Amino acid sequence: MIIQPKVRGFVCITAHPEGCAAHIDEQIAHVRAGGPIKDGPKKVLVIGASTGYGLATRIATAFGAGAATLGVFFERPSSNGKPASAGWYNTVAFEKKAHAEGLYAKSLNGDAFSPEMKESVVDLIRRDLGQVDLVVYSLASPRRTDPATGEVHKSVLKPIGAPYKSKNLDTDKKRVLPVEIGPAEEAEIASTVKVMGGEDWLLWMEALEGAGLLAEGCSSMAYDYIGPELTWPVYTNGTIGAAKKHLRETAAKIDAMLKVRRGRAFVSVNKAVVTQASSAIPVVPLYISLLFKVMKEKGLHEDCIQQIDRLLRTQMYNDGALNFDDLGRVRIDDWEMREDVQAAVAAIWPEVETGNIDELTDFAGYQENFLKLFGFGLPNVNYDRETEPEVDIPSLAEISSA
Ligand code: NAD
Description:
By secondary structure, the protein is α/β, with parallel strands linked by helices. It has helices spanning 17-33, 52-65, 86-100, 115-129, 186-196, 199-210, 239-259, 284-297, 304-316, 339-348, 357-360, 363-372, and strands at residues 7-8, 11-12, 43-47, 68-73, 105-109, 132-137, 143-145, 152-154, 164-170, 175-181, 214-224, 264-269, 330-331.
């Protein structure tokens, strides 16, 4: 079939297999250009491995450090002639490239929050890898079924305590519109913490530790975001910020667990990038469009792969030292948060309106990046040609039933 982008609001409901493969190739090329990562991880579990920051981590550890990788994600295969989701095609391409290099790469598609998934991963690591020396927790999910109670929790993106007024970019219609978001109820805050906080990360680490699968010196990390003051009411000080605070507190618990074997756990604060998760956050797409313009002009632009590659090379491995802030977070959002960058964004922010989007922001860059997430707009891919939507992930492992 011929696959073209079909954008509905802030998602694209189609994805292109060859385009996603070309996007994977670009990311691999970036990592390869930096040469091998000295003393990098050898056996890596990435939870949330099919798109965004988790995918970039899988690519960087495999192609930078030659690591065996196990990837967990929740993606949709092709059915009834409809294309699969982008993360499915990303994984097909990633595994093929990894296998061609002789690298171990297996994947599990299903709910990472479930006990069945954890058991399946434990079995697979025990059988194939023995132990892991890096566990990366990079989930972004709208809901979670609590394994203890069966209750379904939904995460919301709302301010806490007071309504938040700002402006928003309707990326579909290319319009800047006022937005007002009412404050979250207590139950919504608690639910968001249940979904995006650290509870599930800890369950994963306890399951791995309990089975003796964490190697000497094992590290674990999850990802956090801070961003500019103008998004703090809806992000850092909002429901998702409450969840991230819980994630940080959990990092301290996991760190204590790993210290016994000379390992460590932490959250890394990453920069704002276009991903399926970030395009759904109110206000953030407008901020990212502005940020892209400023950072590109200053020669500081980075996407997921550049961020993770820099994190691994300059801080985690290669004799690098982790750059902790006063809240114990590792910072790789240093370029985004540079004073001159934030001042430039803050100066333009009040001026942006529908009529000057192209002049004042890099909306074209935002859109290009967004479409790329789904494998569209890549050079050397012929989008008018017939393509086969039904492709298998080469090493998709079975998930055991409870
Ligand atoms: P993303 O949407 O690109 O990726 C989410 C991943 O989670 C995918 O692999 C998806 O398949 C997987 N997933 C979701 N629900 C799942 C489930 N129930 N079971 C198994 N897998 C599931 O998101 P992202 O933007 O890369 O976010 C990853 C992390 O990075 C989040 O913690 C996010 O807050 C953080 N972060 C993002 C940004 C940003 O600008 N995008 C910035 C800093 C930090």
